[in-house]
Amino acid sequence: MSTRPIIGHVESINLPELGIEQLLVRVDTGAQTSSLHVDNIQKTYIDNKPAVSFDIHPEIHNVQKKVGCQAILHDIRQVKSSNGGREQRYVIQTLAILGSHSWNIEITLTDRSDMTYLMLLGRQALANHFYIDAANAFLMSNK
After folding, report:
1. CA 103, CA 137: separation in Å to the nearest integer?
2. Are 122 and 132 a contacting pair, CB within 8 Å?
3. Do 98 and 142 form a contact (C-beta atoms < 8 A)?
4. C-beta atoms surrounding 60 within 10 Å
5. Are strands 20-27 and 131-133 parallel, antiparallel or unpaired?
6. Taking the alpha carbons of 9, 56, 95, 33 in that order, is the dihedral positive or negative?
7. How high is the pLDDT of residue 66?
8. Would 28 disulfide with which of 2, 92, 120, 125, CB 3.0-4.6 Å?
9. What pLDDT, in 10s, does the model give residues 57-91?
10. Quick one: DSSP state of residue 123?
């Protein structure tokens, strides 16, 4: 019997390295990589390593609130978006915390302003960590 926790189709996660807490995410097994809505993406350097700076609006109903972030650039990838088009995106790695579970995930940075959720948690982030109960939400967020 596996000890993987069960999560719902919507959860609330923390991204402490980005200074983000209680971010609503949609669990999306159709998406390969997780994606996060950001604004003002700029290429920069941290300790002479390629990096990106960007703004996150962690509260979907309060677009005035923004958090400025920086992260080491992990990769640049061509990603097939939900509308079928291809888009080049910056990829970062960061710590994610859901309930008592913490692990590193890859996140692509993109404009999701027309989407309901600011972040998708994709298959790579979910693999070998969780089972998904698509009929329920917030199964791990409150633990």
Report:
1. 20
2. no
3. no
4. 13
5. unpaired
6. positive
7. 87
8. 120
9. 877 677 778 889 999 999 999 988 767 788 899 99
10. H
- Cα(14)–Cα(99) distance, rounded to whole angstroms? 9
Which two tokens mark 38?
A: 């950001």
Partners of 62 in beta bridges: none
| pLDDT tens, residue by residue, 90-139 | 999 999 999 999 999 999 999 887 788 889 999 999 988 999 999 999 99
Q: Cα(99)–Cα(65) distance, rounded to whole angstroms?
A: 24
Surface-to-core class of residue 134, CB atoms within 10 Å of its CB (0-12 exposed, 13-18 middle, 19+ buried) = exposed
Distance (Å, whole) CA 46 – CA 51: 6
Is 67 in contact with 142 (CB distance < 8 Å)?
no
Question: What is the pLDDT, as a whole number, of residue 2?
Answer: 64
d(CA 136, CA 42): 37
